[in-house]
Amino acid sequence: MQIRPVFTALRRHRLATLLIALEIALACAVLCNACFLIINRVQRMKMISGVDESSLAFVQLTGFETKGAKDLNARMLNGFGGIAGVLSAHVINTVPFGQQAGTFGISLERSMRNIPAVIDLYLGGPGSLEALGVKLVAGRAPQLADYVTLTNDFPSDAPVLITRSLAEHLWPGGDPLGKEFWSGGDYHYRVIGVVEHLAIAQPGSRGVASADWSAFAPVQPGPFLAGGYLLRTAPGEAPRVLRDARATAMKIAPDSVLDQDASQTVSDLRMRYFENDRGMTRILIGVIVSLLLVTALGIVGLASFWVGQRRKQIGIRRAIGATRGDILRYFLMENFLIVSFGVVLGIGLAYACNLMLMKRYELAHLPFYYLPLAAVALWVLGQLAVLGPALRAAAVPPVVATRSV
Length: 405
Fold this sequence. Notes:
This protein is an alpha+beta fold and 405 residues long. 48% of the residues lie in helices and 17% in strands.
């Protein structure tokens, strides 16, 4: 069919055409960026922690005297070991998705002239690394002689295991085993092993790229490592074990304070950590559905108005030989052109919105393939929305041409 008559008709209704095109442009921009945000949130929620989440629980005590920390650790580990379903109990400073602890910048030079990464340092007593269930991919696990005594909040000189992503970041393409790094110039660490994954305690706090930049230092429990307890349980027993462990902790150390928020199964800690992401995803999905529905209703309303306004013209065309298919294709083509114009505007608007999000919220650049996908979605939506009015237009009989308006 010829497109010129369609353009001629659209020029006669510039304002209505422009309003629908702008609505489609807004829908295109929101659709691209909202889908991009949703996918980013979903990928974040699927983040690999590297630990056996379903079989781990964490108990946190506060408010105890530091001088009695060693005795407290011994009593707590003994009490937790007697709970049915507990395979092992260990002292550790935190767990993935738990409270942030041991965060500092590191350098490959003692002078600290350059700080290439900010990491989380996990401090764990004997057996804690094995209890976490991390996968060793290079080097060795800590031996008994590797567990150093703490004289401060962090070990001043200790062997560590680091994640593969951190190793690749610090020594791209190189062998990290035996390499050294420093923190503050006085804290020295040497790499004895590499684990596949071990997410930092708050994996979204410093960006997705650094969510796995962590190290594990084997240390002896004592005054500077006390109150945090990792329980490895039998499969499916973590919730019940946690319930019993809370009660046990209160019996053993009634003068201490049990941190209810921090004392959770690691699975529950993950669920709570990503609660805002799930809420934002639901909101964005609601925004997309609402905007597409409004856009579709706008197309239906405009097309229905035009069908009623052009009813006699349609009858005349039918009287001089136009088929139902010709009328149907006319309205589908007209809507396609309007949607295409809106999509072109929407592409520019989508990138403008993305640049704003990149500047304010450190969002990544919008991938190009989102644009054609959004265009196809809006074309399909537009054609489906106009199909009802177009079919009614195609059903107008030629006799309408003989009636007075």
